[in-house]
Amino acid sequence: MRKIAFFDTKAYDKEWFNKLNKDYEFIFIEGKLNPTTAQLAKGCEVICGFVNDDIGKETIDVLYGLGVRAIVLRCAGYNNVDFKEAYGKINIMRVPAYSPHAVAEHAMALLLTLNRKIHKAYNRTRDFNFSLSGLIGMDLHGKTVGIIGTGKIGKIFINICKGFGMKVIAYDLFPDEKEDIDYVDLDTLFRKSDIISLHCPLTKETRHILSFEAFGKMKDGVYIINTSRGGLIESGALLHALTNKKVAGAGLDVYEEEGEFFFEDFSNIIIDDDVLSLLVSKPNVIITSHQGFFTREALENIAKVTLENIDEYFSGGKLTNEICYQCEEKLNNKNCRKEKKERCF
Ligand code: NAD
Fold it and tell me: Which residues pair with 196 in a beta bridge?
């Protein structure tokens, strides 16, 4: 039986993948993938990685040397992969959409919790403190929400916001003209939004899209929601904007340096990330540890599509969910092999 090594796994990964597996021997490894742990992939032609695995040059070299020829990511984002290094050696596949609803709904959960101080009320009433002081919020109805990235998740979040009677404006590098979306430039979005929610991928262009300069352009009292990738926000700039009250609250499902911490229990350890400690300590910041995707529906879809990706790889045919460094440019790239229904290499 073909062996597939899964990195950075938890009990819920085993549960869903084992439930749907018929054809493979799965090796579930708790540690994250990096140049050292990559050795554990010996004997596997295909391995499965996750959001905070290190799939950089060194890891790819080790994996290739061991005979690994495909990496299936059980996630949508892929900013942790060195695609140029992998090209010609290891095919990379991902799960482009497993439940955009899960992430969009989580973004709204963060906004509602922050705005109506549910996190504080929950703790208060458990202590029989029924006072309301300090819990005042605002009506979301009529407020302007600025969406950066109007892909699958962004569009669902837009509809949720419209359901709340909010005004929606959006910025996207590739506006979807088929949709009834009020696109504006980034500066206008910063100036007009009461709430800004990030739904674009982390790329060279979007890294620190919310920088010191960007926060400077925003309305006083803006709310920031980030369920996309931590690197979209310059963490120091956010801290500064929270301290000087430019930002009224931040709901963060992702954090720039999350790789070392998220998905793990550090409750008995003093962590050495002062920015994260300061963010956690603020009453108007809610951090969840990359749990936007975490619904039963999403986990089932992730397992199903990942297994289909593995099957396709071994079938020798085209790889529906393959991605390479050229795919990002495919809109302008007439020679994209994937468009011609071939593997990227
Ligand atoms: P998608 O590809 O459907 O949409 C992304 C959108 O961003 C596209 O419309 C694209 O044109 C736009 N975009 C690309 N570059 C841009 C730029 N420079 N400026 C503005 N817009 C740009 O992706 P999706 O499925 O909606 O997911 C969005 C992001 O959500 C993913 O990239 C991933 O990082 C994140 N995500 C997080 C979780 C979680 O658990 N928190 C789960 C899944 C995805």
Answer: 146, 224
Q: What is the pLDDT of residues 230-282, one digit of tens each?
A: 999 999 999 999 999 999 999 999 999 998 899 999 999 999 999 999 999 99
How far is the centre of ligand 1, averaged over its atoms, from the C-alpha of 36 (Å)?
Answer: 30
| Top mutation candidate among 95, 200, 288, 321 for ligand 1, by most atoms within 8 Å of CB | 200
**Residues 140, 268 within the same domain:** yes
Write out the residue range of the structural domain in which residue 268 sits: 100-287
Q: Whose CA is closest to 155, among 104, 194, 111?
A: 104
145 phi/psi in degrees, rounded to 5: -110, 130
Say how far apart CA 141 and CA 163 lie, in whole Å: 9
Q: Write down the pTM of the prediction.
A: 0.92
Closest-CA residue, ligand 1 atom 12, reads 149
Does 140 share its domain with 255? yes
Same-domain pairing of 151 and 47: no
Of 150, 177, 199, the residue with max ligand 1 atoms within 8 A of its CB, to mutate for a pocket test, comes to: 199
Q: Are residues 148 and 277 in the same domain?
A: yes
